[in-house]
């Protein structure tokens, strides 16, 4: 058996986005591997035949092929591929042949949907006509996005393209983005999400419908918060979508909604679940290729969707009369994507001991159908986490996990690393986490918890950090460390801490408020909530929401009082700062401020800058950079391990 190391990353495989063929006999899915020589990810579409069990690659090459979707008659498979540079729409016959490129948008395709007559509707940004100069003239607050870069002047619109390659024909227009098209069963209408308000601080999308005969666009549902992933019911009477009514805010449960295409009446079907739809469990061992939309049963009475519950993600179903049922059994799983066909669910499932593999579930029987990681994992010392619960000082129950080194013995004492997730409205859960396994395999116990502010424990819990960053969320984490440090096998003189994004903010906050940690690594972090308002791609709305409306001109003192930079002169813990130079979410200037402050104050610190990387370095950065990042984390802790009591 071999330990899991930073280099293990190169051998991991990620499967997801299963799609049934219309006859239900085959399933296509996306498999992503890492090409170490090229230092790149490669995604190909594979096809699993349910009768023969044969699993074969369907597309070839070194590019990223993703978002496969069968045409309604099953004769074509469309997918988005980077094989010609930017992500463009391709189509191929399902019985084989060469893929044909259907779109040539300079900035690529965002989303698409099949029409009944073998046409497709595509959401793509119009080519920028004014690219005469490389100077950027900016007139809106939303002019850049982490991981995308600068949006340019042209918004995203809908276009019709034909399988023979003709088109694209533009079908919506205006100075706002329009995405997520869904086609009515008769092919006459397309519903889509649109941001028809320009240049506002807080924008809330709505659902619109375009009539393809007349070109007229109607408002179908006036959004009051978030609206995404609309899907027509097979009988055309409803559109299901994900949304909430709380403005632009990630600190609420997004729910499954339906709107009647006749009366316009809209309601949430999943409110009683009190859980957010979709997968809110983070990991560094997933290569996301698709977001799952709601899936209707053929009778138009039931909808399938995923939701996050206490660190697990299950498939659920809900009827139009709001009866909710958990569909995937077991309690240790993170379903990242799924497809449904006549009573059978095909799903990609991560567990604490493996990145995602595909499963089929029929009549409560489960069959694993891919084993891409199995040979590797049979030769590795994988540690399986134990679920734990803690009581915060105000009595609230906090969930967490302890990951012990392989070969753990309770007679020994182990150093401990506290890992803090970002968001703050995301969560840790029952998935495979490469960084944590590397630490456990290096001899550390890893403690990770879901403090208040995390998703998956109800809306009251997720709102528990609003207006209180560095308050009760901090206490929840410290109370968990206190409890674990009392265990006989934990070396309380060797406690370490790390986290990314909001987890980096909290790491900075911690070293400024306690001296219990031997060393810290702060990643993609925030130290100044005041300057972040103007420099992050989301700062102008996110920071104000997270601090419960606090804004620069009225509440400057409060904002600074919740910023670690104010307390930098209390830091004694050695801090390594890891940051990506193209991070538009928690901009590089945050790391620079923290580094400069700690250096000036004589604290042991080191700044590690990753060029050509953004906020997602740990998840989809260049593979070699990801390995280097992990080496920096483990190396920093090892450097301080054991010495200086
Ligand atoms: C600290 S400000 C922005 C934090 C960011 N939240 C939303 O984008 C965040 O914490 N993201 C998490 C999910 C991360 O990057 O791990």
UniProtKB/TrEMBL annotation:
Keywords, in A-Z order: Acetylation, Hydrolase, Protease, Serine protease
Span of domain Peptidase S9 prolyl oligopeptidase catalytic: 432-643
Keyword Hydrolase appears in the UniProt entry: yes
Alphabetized Pfam families for the sequence: PD40, Peptidase_S9
Keyword Acetylation included in the entry's annotation: yes
PROSITE patterns referenced in this protein's UniProt entry, alphabetically: PRO_ENDOPEP_SER
Function statement: This enzyme catalyzes the hydrolysis of the N-terminal peptide bond of an N-acetylated peptide to generate an N-acetylated amino acid and a peptide with a free N-terminus. It preferentially cleaves off Ac-Ala, Ac-Met and Ac-Ser. Also, involved in the degradation of oxidized and glycated proteins.
PANTHER family assigned: DIPEPTIDYL PEPTIDASE FAMILY MEMBER 6, SERINE PEPTIDASE S9 FAMILY MEMBER
Name under which the protein is recorded: Acyl-peptide hydrolase
Species for this entry: Fodinisporobacter ferrooxydans
């Amino acid at each position: 058996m071999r330990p899991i190391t930073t280099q293990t990353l190169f051998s991991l495989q990620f499967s997801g986005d299963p799609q049934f063929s219309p006859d239900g006999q085959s399933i296509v899915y996306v498999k992503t591997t890492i090409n170490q020589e090229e230092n790149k990810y490669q995604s190909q579409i594979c096809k699993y035949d349910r009768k023969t069990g044969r699993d074969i690659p369907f597309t070839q090459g070194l590019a990223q092929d993703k978002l496969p979707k069968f045409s309604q008659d099953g004769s074509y498979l469309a997918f988005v591929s980077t094989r010609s540079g930017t992500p463009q729409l391709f189509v191929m016959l399902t019985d084989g042949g060469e893929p044909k490129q259907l779109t040539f948008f300079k900035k690529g395709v965002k989303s698409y949907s099949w029409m009944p007559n073998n046409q497709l509707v595509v959401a793509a940004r119009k080519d920028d006509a004014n690219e005469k100069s490389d100077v950027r003239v900016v007139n809106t607050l939303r002019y850049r996005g982490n991981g995308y870069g600068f949006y340019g002047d042209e918004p995203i619109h809908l276009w019709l393209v034909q399988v023979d390659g003709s088109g694209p024909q533009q079908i919506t227009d205006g100075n706002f983005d329009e995405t997520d098209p869904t086609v009515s069963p008769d092919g006459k209408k397309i519903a889509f999400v649109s941001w028809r308000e320009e240049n506002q601080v807080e924008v809330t999308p709505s659902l619109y419908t375009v009539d393809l005969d007349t070109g007229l666009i109607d408002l179908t549902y006036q959004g009051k918060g978030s609206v995404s992933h609309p899907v027509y019911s097979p009988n055309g009477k409803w559109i299901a979508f994900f949304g909430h009514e709380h403005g632009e805010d990630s600190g609420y449960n997004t729910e499954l909604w339906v709107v009647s295409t006749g009366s316009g009446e809209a309601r949430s079907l999943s409110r009683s679940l009190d859980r957010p739809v979709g997968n809110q469990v983070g990991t560094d061992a997933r290569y996301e290729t698709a977001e799952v939309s709601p899936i209707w049963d053929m009778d138009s009475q039931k909808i399938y969707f995923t939701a996050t519950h206490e660190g697990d993600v299950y498939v659920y179903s809900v009827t139009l009369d709001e009866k909710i049922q958990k569909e995937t059994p077991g309690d240790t799983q993170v379903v990242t994507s799924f497809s449904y066909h006549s009573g059978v669910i095909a799903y990609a499932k991560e567990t604490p001991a493996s990145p995602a593999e595909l499963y089929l579930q029929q009549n409560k029987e489960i069959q694993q159908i891919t084993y891409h990681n199995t040979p590797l994992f049979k030769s590795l010392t994988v540690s399986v986490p134990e679920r734990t619960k803690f009581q915060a000082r105000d009595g609230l129950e906090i969930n967490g996990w302890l990951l012990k080194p392989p070969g753990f013995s309770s007679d020994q004492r182990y150093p401990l690393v506290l890992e803090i997730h970002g968001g703050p409205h995301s969560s840790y859960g029952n998935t495979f986490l490469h960084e944590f396994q590397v630490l456990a395999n290096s001899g550390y116990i890893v403690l990770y918890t879901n403090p208040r502010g995390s998703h998956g424990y109800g809306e009251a819990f997720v709102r528990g950090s609003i207006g209180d960053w560095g308050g009760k969320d901090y206490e929840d984490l410290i109370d968990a460390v206190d409890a674990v440090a009392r265990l006989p096998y934990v070396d309380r003189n060797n406690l370490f801490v790390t986290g990314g994004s909001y987890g980096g903010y909290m790491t900075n906050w911690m070293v400024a408020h306690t001296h219990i940690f031997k060393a810290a690594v702060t990643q993609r972090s925030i130290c100044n909530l005041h300057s972040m308002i103007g420099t992050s791609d989301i700062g102008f709305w996110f920071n104000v929401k997270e601090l419960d409306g606090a804004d620069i001109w009225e509440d400057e003192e409060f904002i600074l009082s919740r910023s670690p930079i104010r307390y930098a002169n209390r830091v004694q813990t050695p801090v390594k700062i890891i940051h990506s130079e193209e991070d538009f979410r928690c901009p590089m200037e945050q790391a620079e401020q923290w580094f400069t402050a700690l250096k000036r104050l004589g604290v042991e610190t080191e700044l590690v800058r990753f060029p050509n990387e953004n906020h997602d370095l740990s998840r989809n950065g260049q593979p070699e950079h990801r390995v280097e990042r992990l080496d920096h984390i483990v190396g920093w802790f090892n450097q301080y391990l054991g010495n200086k009591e």
